Amino acid sequence: MLGSTIRSFASRTTGASRSFFSTSAVRKTEKLWENPWKYAIPEKTKTLATVEEIPVDWSYVERLMPIEVVPEVPKHESYPTPSGWTPPSGAGKTHPYYVRRRPDHLLPLYLERKRDLLNEKTLDFDYVELVTVRSVDGDVFACEQDLRTYLQEQLGHPVATHVDELKGRIKVKGAPRSLIEQFFYSKGF
C-alpha cells in the first residue's frame, strides 16, 4: 500500500516537472541554469488604465477655501472704536518705514512669553514677555529707533529691542503691547 502511494506521488511530480521544463520552453541551445528567472517569472503584459471624468459640484469645496481678496476697511461712526482700533491714515506714508496690517486690518503685533533667568531665592525660572512687530517694510532701524524713544519717554525706563532686518521684525522687551499699538496708531499705520 505504501509503495503504491510513493509510486503515484513520484509519477505526479515527474509529470509536472516534465510539463514545466518541456523542450518547447527551453531551447536546445540555451541551458536552463544559465538564466533561471526567464522561465520562473511569467512574462509582463501591459495594461492601460482607463480614465473617466466624473462631474463634481465644487460649490461645497469653494465654501471652505480662504477669501482671496482682503475685505475693505470697516466704516465706524467714530474713531478710535471701543476696542481702540483706528483705520490707517495718510500720515503713515510720510515715514521711511511702513508697517503692513494683517488681512483682518489689525497691526502685526504678537506676544511671546519666554523663560528668562533662574531666580536664586525660589529656584524657579522667571518669565519675560516679548512683543514682536512683524511686516516692517523700509528702514527697519529707523522704525526701531522711533519706537524705542517713544517707549522710553512713556515708561521712564530703558527698553530692550532687537531688529531682524531680513525678516522685517522688531522684538521689544520691557514694554506692554498696548503702548506699542498706540505708537503705531499715532504714526498713521
From TrEMBL:
Keywords: Mitochondrion, Ribonucleoprotein, Ribosomal protein. Pfam families: Img2. GO terms for biological process: translation. One of its GO terms (cellular component) is mitochondrial large ribosomal subunit. It comes from Caenorhabditis remanei. This is Large ribosomal subunit protein mL49. One of its GO terms (molecular function) is structural constituent of ribosome. It is found in: Mitochondrion. The keyword Ribosomal protein applies.
